[in-house]
Write a structure and sequence with these properties.
- The protein is of the alpha+beta class and about 1300 residues long.
- It has a seven-stranded mixed β-sheet with strand order 5-6-20-7-14-10-11, sandwiched between helices.
- Strand 16 (about 540-545) and strand 17 form a beta hairpin.
- Helix 29 crosses helix 32 (about 970-985) and helix 34 (about 1015-1035) packs antiparallel against helix 35 (about 1050-1085).
Length: about 1300
């Protein structure tokens, strides 16, 4: 059994308040001590005097590191503190839910959990599905605003140094991203730009925080009907103006003063006379002794402030920041003013503000009084003059602060539309208590009392709403209402009333106010929340909800009055530089402004005090918060050393009490903190049910079995959809379940062991029989082998003898045959030589006789031919002589020559036309340049030519999609290139350039028109790339084997290159947008494997605005993803896009999908289980198979899947032994160390066969991961928006001719083909 024990009782000197321990010896009533084993394996004895002294029980292992504190079975302070420590130190999780509250622990370290990929992961997701995060609260507020059309508020509180400002900054950044477009609009930029400005003039270094906000602010971000940011407005509360003139040791003034001093050498700063040793030179910046904050560059911070002013005030940016810097520098010089004549600092102050130095010097040392209707001027002593000087400095800074806020609000207004609703972000100071507490701490703690009251009532209201919704019988839950403490401060004759009354007295003092407090709240009617210190008459004690605080009365009246003499203000109003500060805001009652003191008492009495203004603004804030749906963020400071990931339990408990987290726990524990749906309860505790039970009747089974398990009916209650348990009952059920499983395991073990023994005996018996059988067989085989060897020897001898005799016989026979053959051959050759000589002689004689006969015949034939030819020639000669005397013969001869010349000319013309493709080029050329050439085409053909020209370069955006997609790949680019080449060959380079430019413009228009059509984007990608490739390869720089283009088309090729990238990115953006919306549900949530369900079994929690996705419907599946990818692949393949470009495109898309899926796994606890890992692995295998079937893996499309595949394997492998840890580290090489630890931390068992990953195993993994060289970046989430560079391949130059162009019949220009 797990216990939580205080370490001081165990003899430890550790600072931890509670530690986890296990009972190793049963406790019985009467025992004086418990034998415990701590988490470090040390055994201790815990003293117990009675049963009431037993330490509190710890939560079961299933709830170890639970991300919602209200889901714990035992809701007490040790359990809450232990759970926060485990999540913060062991899991490195800084966020934890506590019902509707997000507890944020400051890690004092930059964590990679706030990038745009994290915003994308949380955007659109339900709060219940994701791990706790500040973005989850912001997304919940954003979705609730859009769904309910109700204003929202995010209340961020905590003490100084707990991270309130950073949380507010990230919240506004989330709204700027989800409420803006892909590229931030002016309003979103201004919302983010206001943060550096307000930090520089409102934040300072304190002993607890290097960037402490010394004011409270409430920023309203207005949204339009489409969810985009329309405007923003900022309200501020209680600026700590006293810091301008005084800083305690180890503290600094506001950052802006040190930023100015660090930038004093800039040209525009030299006129401010900041000196060489600033800020040590100025009294207002050197009191704390801290001139520099480690790790901070004041000069770069000032540059950031100036850039922010540029975003906010584009028209007069330079004037605005010079105006600010002059006034701030004047305040610094005012602090160095000595109450003497001709002071140099006073002269610089007067020059910077444009006022008269003599008048300022006079009224800094004198005051005007009105006595009996007469005005008198009275000199002041040195102390009074210093106070007047400091009051003026504070007033100027306060007015400047108010003026800056007003200018920011003016810049944050937009005229884009009407605001539908808003989300307010409240960044306000938390409860403060110091050794010396003054007026500022009193107001801060009063504000926290009001906020705590609103928080308690809201939590109580939500708790009761849950019971009413489930129709539970409930009695009113009592919670601590701090209304009495609030009445003490703001009620009639309360502390503020008495303070204002004393401020109106002519000789009011802090001591008189303290006596009035004692008389009113101690003597006449003692107040339970007010006390008087024993050893002081100038202090009082208030019992706040968080702690008891003692306030020193000194300075209360002066800070409440916050007055400055009217004569000094009149001097400043006369200045053209600073008059705007006092005229524009002079009548506005804000907390930043104090009262202006004149000589008339009646006027002074009607001035508003700081306390009264603060109460008014705080009441306005409470009215605003009450009219909105609140969301709470409580920031916790884990240690005072500002060291990363060091957990101080004492400081943490103090802040948990102060910010109301423990009060939320107490309210939840007073009712039914543990809530399970009937299905979840049945799935978890079905082992406790008897007989066969059906999941369809989960409610009936739960109703039947619970009275038997928990006899006390007050410990549980049945609702409509859930069963509710008191604190500790879930742990009791877990113990019963563990006991039932233990008994079942023992029975199973006994049966298994018996079965194993029987199996062992059967195997031994079978082995003995087998050995005997093999031994007998071996002896029989040995005998048989001996007999076979004997018989074989006889056979071998017989065969050998036969072979020897046969070889001798064959040798003798072969020799005999050889001798006979040689003898017969010699005789035959001798007879042949004799016959051959006779034949040769006969052949020679016969040949001579034949040749002599041939020569005689040939001589006779030639003689006869000569006679015949001589006779024919004589006849022809006589005929020619007769024709030569006739004139008609000459005419006929000339006519035949003319016909032949005309035929030759026509044949030459056709050859020229064929060489230059004039049948196409002249037509397009005439249509483009409007050259007046007479054509013989009919009107129908001319219209068809116009359509052809529109297809090529005039208006591709007007072509029908089906017609355009039916074209052969690259047809427009090829025809256009032929036109350009003809114009270039004709010597008209200007017209060739104009034609190309017009084509580029037309393609851009087409891409702009079809921004959501993948097929058209692929079409113009192909044509733009092909035209770019043709022009580039035929340019004079690269062509070596054909005549190059003489026109300079370099600008056109650059434009075409940019156009290719634009078309490529547009095509991926269309498909990527569709895939991004379905990737998580298809890859991670769809159950592709039938029968393998991974339903959620975590303890349910109900929060304000929770809107889970509806179940059922047409949920995306892997078929949907493959369908989208297939559509893109078909479009690119149809256009004959090169394979390398296809591989690059799918590499980009697969990387986006896998990064999005892995981010969801790293942020969603319900996805981290064994069954879901199996589903994810199967879905990814389908995607990988699809990629490989299309030969796209060569371009790296499979590589982005590796982290997701390894994450799925990590969810399936064993996670217990050291061997499992080493296997995980060796296998998961594509996952970073942070990602591995995160998945193991989120791993949630969803069946009885699985169990949660132990903390010791995670520590073992972390130790092993430190030893490996991690090539992965040190980040948790993947970059979804990562873009890979694209390279367009160069293809061999195609041979273009009209014969090779295939023109579809749908264009009706078939006559352009050459016959």
């Amino acid at each position: 059994m797990c216990l939580l024990v205080p370490l001081h009782s165990c003899g430890s000197n550790s600072d931890a308040v509670w530690v986890s321990a296990q009972i190793i010896q049963d406790y019985k009533p009467g025992h004086k001590e418990l034998l415990l084993q701590l988490c470090d394996r040390n055994e201790v004895r815990y003293p117990v005097s009675s049963s009431s002294d037993l330490p509190p029980l710890g939560n079961p292992d299933i709830l170890e590191g639970e991300n919602d504190l209200t889901a714990l079975s035992f809701l007490h302070e040790p359990a809450v503190l232990h759970n926060l420590r485990v999540r913060f130190l062991d899991y490195s999780s800084i966020y934890t839910y506590c019902g509707i509250v997000l507890v944020a622990i400051n890690p004092y370290e930059q964590l990679p959990i706030y990038g745009e990929e994290v915003i994308d992961a949380y955007s659109g997701q339900d709060m219940n599905d994701m791990e706790p995060h500040i973005f989850s609260v912001a997304e919940n507020a954003y979705r609730t605003m859009g769904r309910e059309e109700r204003n929202q508020s995010i209340i961020i509180s905590g003490e100084s140094g707990s991270g309130k400002t950073v949380s507010a900054k990230f919240t506004m950044r989330f709204f700027a991203v989800v409420g803006g477009s892909a590229q931030q609009t002016s309003v979103e930029e201004k919302v983010l730009a206001s943060n550096p400005i307000m930090e520089s003039i409102g934040n300072a270094k304190t002993t607890r925080n290097d960037n402490s906000s010394r004011f409270g602010k409430y920023i309203e971000i207005g949204f339009g009907r489409k969810g985009d940011i329309i405007r923003a407005n900022m309200r501020t509360y209680l600026l700590e103006k006293s810091r301008v003139v005084f800083q305690a040791s180890a503290e600094r003034n506001y950052h802006i003063f040190y930023q100015l001093c660090a930038s004093r050498d800039l040209p525009e700063m030299r006129g401010l006379k900041l000196g060489e040793n600033a800020p040590e030179h100025f009294r207002y910046t050197n009191q704390g002794g801290e001139m520099q904050i480690p790790g901070t560059d004041d000069m770069s911070d000032l540059e950031l402030t100036r850039n922010s002013l540029t975003v906010l005030g584009r028209s007069s940016t330079c004037t605005m920041y010079i105006y600010l810097f002059r006034i701030l520098s004047a305040v610094l010089h005012l602090g160095n003013v000595n109450i003497e004549a001709d002071d140099r600092s006073l002269a610089i102050f007067s020059k910077l503000l444009g006022v008269e130095g003599s008048q300022m010097a006079h009224w800094l040392c004198h005051r005007r009084l009105t006595v009996g209707g007469e005005k008198l001027v009275k000199p002041m002593n040195g102390q009074q003059a210093v106070e007047a000087r400091d009051a003026l400095a504070k007033h100027i800074y306060g007015q400047l602060f108010t003026w800056t806020v007003h200018r920011l609000n003016s810049a944050l207004r937009s005229q884009r539309g009407e605001t539908r609703s808003f989300i307010g972000v409240l960044d306000i100071y938390g409860f403060e208590t110091f050794e010396c507490n003054s007026f500022e701490q009193f107001c801060i703690n009063y504000a926290n009392e009001k906020l705590q009251q609103q928080f308690n009532r809201h939590v109580f209201h939500l708790e009761q709403e849950e019971y009413v919704r489930e129709e539970l019988p409930w009695s009113r839950i009592e919670f601590s209402d701090n209304q009495e403490c609030i009445n003490l401060i703001e009620g009639q004759m309360g502390m503020f009333d008495l303070l204002d009354e004393e401020c109106r007295m002519p000789k009011g003092s802090d001591e008189n106010w303290a006596r009035k407090l004692y008389d009113q709240h101690l003597s006449s009617k003692p107040h339970p929340h007010f006390r008087k210190p024993r050893l002081s008459n100038s202090a009082f004690i208030v019992l706040h909800f968080a702690d008891t605080v003692q306030y020193e009365c000194e300075g209360f009246l002066d800070k409440n009055r916050d007055t400055v003499f009217e004569e000094l203000i009149n001097i400043l109003k006369a200045s053209q530089l600073v008059s705007e500060l006092f005229q524009q805001h002079g009548n506005m009652a804000t907390v930043a402004n104090g009262s202006v003191r004149s000589g008339k008492r009646a006027t002074r009495e009607h001035k508003l005090t700081v306390g009264f203004q603060f109460r008014q603004s705080l009441q306005m804030l409470m009215d605003t918060l009450n009219s909105t749906t609140p969301h709470y963020v409580r920031c916790i400071k884990p240690n005072d050393l500002k060291e990363p990931f060091i957990f101080d339990p004492k400081r943490t408990v103090q802040q948990l009490r102060a910010c109301g987290v423990l009060e939320t726990i107490r309210i939840s524990a007073a009712g039914y903190p543990s809530r399970w749906t009937y299905e979840e309860f049945f799935s978890r505790y079905r082992v406790l049910l008897r007989g066969r039970q059906s999941p369809d009747n989960a409610r009936g089974s739960c109703t039947h079995i619970l009275p038997e398990l928990i006899p006390d009916p007050d410990q549980y209650c049945f609702g409509k959809t859930k069963v509710f348990f008191r604190s500790g009952q879930v742990a009791f059920l877990e113990r019963l379940r563990a006991e039932k499983l233990r008994v079942a395991a023992v029975i199973i073990q006994s049966h298994v062991r018996g079965w194993l023994c029987r199996i062992r005996y059967t195997r031994i018996q079978w082995a003995v029989v087998t050995l005997q059988r093999y031994s007998r067989g071996m002896l029989a085989r040995r005998l048989a082998r001996t007999l076979r060897y004997t018989k074989a020897a006889l056979v071998i001898q017989k065969t050998y003898r036969m072979v020897s005799v046969r070889q001798l016989f064959l040798m003798i026979r072969q020799a005999t045959i050889t001798i006979q053959a040689f003898t017969r051959g010699a005789l035959t050759r001798r007879r042949h030589r004799e016959v051959r000589a006779v034949l040769l002689l006969q052949a020679r004689v016969r040949g001579w006789m034949e040749r002599r006969s041939y020569r005689r015949v040939r001589t006779t034939v030639v003689f006869m031919q000569c006679c015949v030819r001589r006779k024919a020639a004589r006849k022809q000669l006589l005929k020619l002589k007769t024709e030569a005397r006739s004139v008609e013969k000459y005419r006929q001869l000339n006519k035949g020559m003319e016909v032949k010349l005309m035929q030759l000319q026509i044949r030459a013309d056709q050859q020229v036309i064929k060489s230059f493709h004039l049948n196409h080029i002249i037509i397009l050329y005439v249509l483009w340049f409007s050259v007046d050439i007479t054509l013989t085409y009919s009107g129908a053909k001319k219209n068809a030519l116009k359509r052809t020209y529109c297809l090529v370069c005039c208006a591709p955006s007007d072509i029908r999609v089906d017609v355009a997609c039916s074209l052969p790949p690259g047809l427009p680019a090829k025809v256009l290139f032929l036109c350009v080449r003809h114009a270039d060959v004709s010597g008209d380079q200007a017209r060739a350039q104009s034609l190309c430019a017009a084509a580029v413009t037309a393609m851009k228009t087409a891409l702009k028109k079809y921004t959501k059509d993948v097929e058209m984007s692929a079409l113009w990608l192909k044509n733009a790339w092909l035209l770019h490739d043709l022009l580039l390869k035929h340019s004079h720089k690269q062509v070596h084997y054909v005549p190059p283009l003489t026109a300079d088309l370099t600008p056109v090729t650059r434009s075409l290159s940019d156009l290719c990238i634009q078309a490529y990115q547009q095509m991926l953006s269309i498909t990527g947008t569709h895939l991004h919306s379905i990737t998580v549900q298809a890859l991670l949530e769809s159950e592709t494997i039938p029968g393998l369900s991974a339903g959620k079994l975590a303890v349910s929690r109900k929060r304000s605005g929770s809107d889970p996705r509806p179940m059922g419907g047409d949920a995306p599946t892997m078929a949907s993803v493959l369908r989208e990818l297939g559509a893109l692949h078909a479009a690119l393949t149809h256009q004959a896009v090169p394979q390398t470009l296809l591989e690059q495109a799918f590499h980009q898309l697969i990387n986006m999908m896998c990064a999005c899926a892995l981010n969801s796994v790293l942020l969603r606890k319900d996805l981290c289980c064994w069954s879901r890992g199996l589903q994810i692995g199967y879905n990814v295998s389908l995607l990988e198979e699809w990629i490989r079937n299309r030969n796209l893996q060569a371009g790296g499309a499979v590589a982005p899947m590796e982290p997701l595949i390894q994450a799925a394997k990590l969810l399936q492998v064993g996670k217990k032994s050291d061997g499992d840890a080493r296997a995980i580290v060796e296998t998961c090489t594509a996952l970073s160390s942070q990602q591995i630890v995160k998945i193991l931390t989120l791993y949630t068992p969803h069946s009885d066969l699985d169990e949660k990953v132990s903390v010791n195993f995670i520590r073992t993994i972390q130790v092993l991961l430190k030893g490996r060289s991690d090539a992965q970046p040190a980040q948790i989430l993947m970059d979804v928006r990562k873009e890979f560079p694209v390279t367009f391949p160069q293809q061999p130059s195609p041979t273009l001719s009209t014969e090779h162009l295939v023109i579809p019949d749908s264009l009706k220009i078939s006559f352009l083909r050459r016959a």
